[in-house]
Amino acid sequence: MYVANIDGASRGNPGPASYAVVIRDPAGKVVLELAKRLGRETNNVAEYYALLAALDYSATQGMKALRIRSDSELLVRQMQGRYKVKSSDLKPLYERATKLARQLAYFVIEHVPREQNRDADALANVALDSGDTGNLEYRPEEKAKEKRHVLSSGPPAVRIRAKLVNGVFVPIEPCPLVEGTEVTLDIRIPPRR
């Protein structure tokens, strides 16, 4: 089973925010370290972006089993169904995370003390301190190379299926975005039958 330590940070809450993910393979070897500066967000939103980044990565890599470790009691209890998600900022993030988690054959999320989440915490602070507006991504197999920066701004990508109705794109499934969110569309036109 893969294990992902995740953390979100915000200075000011809301304030400058970032998240970090450290993923280890079943043998305990680090396969990914990812940190991203988000701009102005709350700590809880940053925690959810960390979770989404870990889940997105697991999906793209074909992982079947994932254990998430976080020092955010709120995030963990909400994902476990023990706390209700009342915040309108967190609801779409929670729904997206729940949907992605269901795609795994095995998913568990557990609360750990901050001391057991030091790697992710330190990486989130590196992203905050860097002033960089993109991802800081490091894959250990690239050790001979320098750490690389993948520039993009904002939170992890969200895929939404929609169809055009009277000149307006209408989501086909529940939309995890908050009202007023600006998006860029990459349109794939299906072949005519």
Please explain how this structure is put together:
- This protein is an alpha+beta fold.
- It has a single domain (2-150), classed as Ribonuclease H-like superfamily/Ribonuclease H (Nucleotidyltransferase, domain 5), CATH 3.30.420.
- 26% of the residues lie in helices and 30% in strands.
- It has helices spanning 43-60, 73-79, 91-102, 118-130, and strands at 2-10, 15-24, 30-41, 65-70, 106-111, 135-138, 148-150, 162-165, 168-171.
- The strands form two sheets. It has a seven-stranded mixed beta sheet, with helices on both faces. The chain has a two-stranded antiparallel sheet with strand order 8-9.
- A hairpin with a 5-residue loop joins strand 2 and strand 3.
- Helix 1 packs parallel to helix 3 (91-102).
- The radius of gyration is 17 Å and the shape is globular.
- Residues 142-154 have low confidence and may be disordered.
Describe the structure concisely for a colleague.
This protein is an alpha+beta fold and 193 residues long. The chain is built from four helices and nine strands; from the N terminus they run E-E-E-H-E-H-H-E-H-E-E-E-E. The chain has helices at 43-60, 73-79, 91-102, 118-130; strands spanning 2-10, 15-24, 30-41, 65-70, 106-111, 135-138, 148-150, 162-165, 168-171.
Q: Helicity, in percent?
A: 25-40%
Task: List the helices and strands in order.
Answer: EEEHEHHEHEEEE
CA-based shape? globular
Helix/sheet category: alpha+beta
Distance separating the two termini: 43 Å
Low-confidence spans: pLDDT under 50, at least 5 residues?
Answer: 142-154
Write the CATH architecture name: 2-Layer Sandwich
Strand tally? 9
